[in-house]
Amino acid sequence: MRRALLVIALLCAALPAPAVFASSATAGQADSIAGVVRYVIDGDTLLLQADGGGKPIKLRLLGLDAPEICQAGGREARDALAGRVVGRRVLATGAVRDDYQRRLVRLTLDGEDIGAWMVLQGHAWSARYRGRSGPYAQEEAAARAARRGLFADPDPQPPHSFRRSHGSCYPAPAP
């Protein structure tokens, strides 16, 4: 089941952002949550306090892959995202969950796509799947051309490659 959800999420990430969230827009934003970002865990994961209150919700930005926190550029990516959204009211749109039960979302701040901003600033890669360049390919190309952030390094290591070589930066939970 988790594998099927991951495949769905990755397929969604390969589509242009408006197509991924079109169903939410036509469903009266039923899959959207407005709230204030309380904490940023890493360059693509955060905690959102929904306007209605309750426990903060763990969200992962859809369509991008930020470096692992213990990887080169990981802390910078986390700090950039935190500096942009912590304490600010945002809109998170999307309903699919990943293997870690994080809701995969497109995050907007005053109408600006935060995922696009992260990639354009050179703090993340556009998510790739099966040879497709992902929804933020143009932003990544611009960041590479300008040698911004991660792309100042001529050969930055993508997070999926880092995880394959080094594993997760987070210790496994105790049984």
Question: Can you put this structure into words, describing what you see?
Answer:
The protein is of the alpha+beta class and 175 residues long. The protein has helices at residues 2-14, 17-20, 22-26, 74-85, 114-120, 137-146, 159-166; strands spanning 32-42, 45-50, 57-61, 64-65, 89-93, 103-109, 112-113, 125-126. Helix content is 34%, strand content 23%. The strands form two sheets. Strands 1-2-3-6-5 form a five-stranded mixed beta barrel. It has a two-stranded antiparallel sheet with strand order 4-8.
The percent range for strand residues is 15-25%
The spatial strand order of the largest sheet comes to: 1-2-3-6-5
The radius of gyration is 15 Å
Would you report the number of β strands?
A: 8
The tally of helices reads 7
Mean pLDDT: 84
Q: Could you name the ranges where pLDDT drops below 50 across 5 or more consecutive residues?
A: 1-30
**Net shape:** globular
Helicity range: 25-40%
In terms of structural class, how would the helical and strand content be classed? alpha+beta
User: From N to C, what is the helix and strand string?
Assistant: HHHEEEEHEEEHEHH
